[in-house]
Amino acid sequence: MPVSKKTAVLLATATLLSLSTAAxxxxxxxxxxxxxxxxxxxxxxxxxxxxxxxxxKPGTQVDxxxxxxxxxxxxxxxxxxxxDAETGEVLAAHNPHWRLAPASTLKxxxxxxxxPKFPKxxxxxxxxxxxxGIGAGSSxxxxxxxxxxSVHDLWLGVFLRSGxxxxxxxxxxxxxxxxxxxxxxxxAEELQALDTNVVTPDGYDEKGQVSSAYDLxxxxxxxxxxxxxxxxxxxxxxxxxxxxxxxxxxxxKGKTKRDPFEIQNTNRLLTGDLGMExxxxxxxxxxGSTTNAxxxxxxxxxxxxxxxxxxVMNPDSGEDHAVYRETARLLDWGFAASGKVxxxxxxxxxxxxxxxxxxxxxxxxxxGAENAASSSDGKSGGMGVALxxxxxxxxxxxxxxxxxxxRWPLPDLVRRRRS
Length: 419
Known about the structure:
Distance between the termini: 10 Å
Strand content: 15-25%
Number of strands: 17
Structural class: alpha+beta
Number of helices: 10
Shape: globular
């Protein structure tokens, strides 16, 4: 998608400001098991086994069968995971349960929790209190006090520009930041994302705020059940309402106008730009970057009917756009390796739901669908969210199993973002 030189400079500046940006790293938040001989943090010797015992082991977990390609060599992330979005099989993983700072990828949980609560047409006039507590250096979409925005506008600000101002306004509408954090934590636990501790709704660096590649993948998979979530996370560019100004000249002098301005998605695998090409088949999901978290990203892509989710956390190779390039390598590997590797784990069902096996779920939490929500439009707020991501990401519950409905192919999103 070509952009002007001026736009490219602005985007580069915004990228440097980061996506949730930049509280200082916390010296007492040492993730994992100390440091290795080079001074780099080490993962814990044992981690959560949600999804399977091998996912709790440090290091890379993969079982290659005959004809399977080897994993990419240029992988520097502290943690990553490749999974089949439809079946939930984990194809390969590296420290997937290491509890690390998530940055703005935590906004996937925020959206999955809050998005169903308000119709997109609802209007809200922003008050000063709505934006209290936004962290210094936060990424902003440009929400202004005393201006009125639709919920649709605010979600575009969240997904495209990772706007912490939009997150705080939506949190205020939801009863405040504290209530929203409480709701997000409850939803994370419902999804069995047990590595996650929510402190802020926007992913801004705060002591104790952690998640994992495994949990972020669960959030993406759950969010992608919702039509609005899918559309927002796949939108490349949009118009955002500007500030109301008085007209100073002409026949309309003295009247007011409110011109919109263009915003572009900061997900470089979706939009390209700044030395990156769009990834073939990409359809979302969310990127992030803070001082403490480094760069984080969860992406979903479809190729030849196969839908993969990849999460990458904190690569340190120094390569330009390393989080995107390592994600692209893992997606390429996953598509080539599909059907040629033995899964090393699985994405578990939410509490009270059943995938038909429950394999890898915590004991006593995998059986029965009696508490699963039967709604497939996201209005349940994620309760009992179904597990298939492809095919419209709608689900039917029958006989205690989640069944896939293949009416919504992910390529439709890719074609739409090009138009």
